UniProtKB/TrEMBL annotation:
InterPro entries: AAA+_ATPase (IPR003593), ABC_Ni/Peptide_Import (IPR050388), ABC_transporter-like_ATP-bd (IPR003439), P-loop_NTPase (IPR027417). Gene3D superfamilies: P-loop containing nucleotide triphosphate hydrolases (3.40.50.300). It is found in: Cell membrane. This is Nickel import system ATP-binding protein NikD.
């Protein structure tokens, strides 16, 4: 948490303990079927995730495993028909949903997957200046913030369609971090990007974490994530099944069968392609 925002703690008392600590997070949805029969859907059955300051924590798992829900739960953004149990502690304090919602956009930034977040009809400069103002900073900080992410001043006058996918991602990171967050929850920030752009975006997260903050990186790009992450949390069917050191993948030290399956499914890792069936 930023010192002057909530705790009043100043830099001279170094923070102890993780920035984010999620324990036994369970999320169910109540649905009413025809005839008004109530049905409970267990979407998260027991998720655990810890992010220390200075860390990039990759969160991986199949589609539908519950990664986005976890991020939304942290920000207190679950839909009204969701029930949440377990604990989410931020900076050493267990916070209820309204308290977490208050941190959204300031201490905690969500980097959404969709680039629809950008207005196609407004220049990048206008949009980043708006983010600056919303974060309580002068609009004139926009150019400097873009420059810090490797985007030159010429980007200010361009429209989203005039930028490459990698540049767009960097603009989104710039906008999400205008409020000077301590924690970024990045929900699949690199879909469809060429490998070089993926590496550049992930490197931005690495630098952010190296400055004493933390990143939870939700991704399907396991190999790229292993290059920047300090820990990898593997989830399956709404549960954390393993929390692993990135090296344990290549060194064959993973313990959970699903974690090994993820690794083995990567191309060049023995992915077995079934023989073509005669037709
Ligand atoms: N509003 C909702 N009502 C009922 N079930 C939901 C709701 N939102 C999400 N779910 C269910 O929760 C589960 C987890 O979804 P989530 O979007 O978190 O998965 P994910 O791991 O982010 O997947 P992906 O990799 O495809 O983004 C899914 O089975 C999904 O159908
Ligand atoms: Ni998702």
């Amino acid at each position: 948490m930023n010192p002057d925002r909530r705790t009043g703690r100043r830099d001279e008392s170094p923070p102890v303990g993780p920035l984010l600590s999620i324990t036994g997070l369970r999320v169910t949805f109540t649905q009413y079927t025809r005839g008004l029969r109530r049905r409970e859907i267990v979407a998260l059955a027991g998720m655990d995730l810890t992010a220390e300051r200075g860390q990039v924590v990759a969160l991986v798992g199949a589609s539908g495993a519950g990664k986005t829900l976890l991020a939304h739960a942290v920000l207190g953004m679950l839909p009204p028909n969701a029930t949440e149990t377990g604990t989410i502690a931020y900076d050493g304090t267990v916070l209820d949903t309204p308290a977490r919602r208050q941190l959204a956009g300031t201490d905690i930034a969500l980097l959404p997957q969709s680039i629809d977040y950008l207005d196609p009809l407004a220049t990048i400069g206008r949009q980043v200046r708006r983010s600056a103002r919303l974060a309580g900073r002068p609009s004139s900080d926009a150019a400097e913030a873009l420059e810090a992410r490797g985007l030159g001043r010429e980007v200010l006058g361009r429209y989203p369609h005039e930028l490459s996918g990698g540049m767009i991602r960097r603009v989104l990171v710039t906008m999400a971090t205008m409020g000077d967050p301590e924690l970024i929850l990045a929900d699949e920030p690199t879909p469809g990007l060429p490998a070089a752009d993926v590496a550049a975006v992930l490197q931005d997260f690495r630098s952010f974490a190296d400055a004493g903050r933390a990143v939870v990186l939700i991704t399907h790009e396991l190999r790229a994530a292993l290059a920047v992450a300090d820990t990898v949390v593997i989830c399956h069917d709404g549960r954390t099944v393993e929390t692993a050191d990135p090296r344990s993948f290549a060194e064959d030290r993973l313990t959970h069968p699903y974690a090994r399956l993820l690794w083995n499914a990567l191309p060049a890792n023995g992915l077995i392609v079934p023989e073509a069936q005669p037709c």
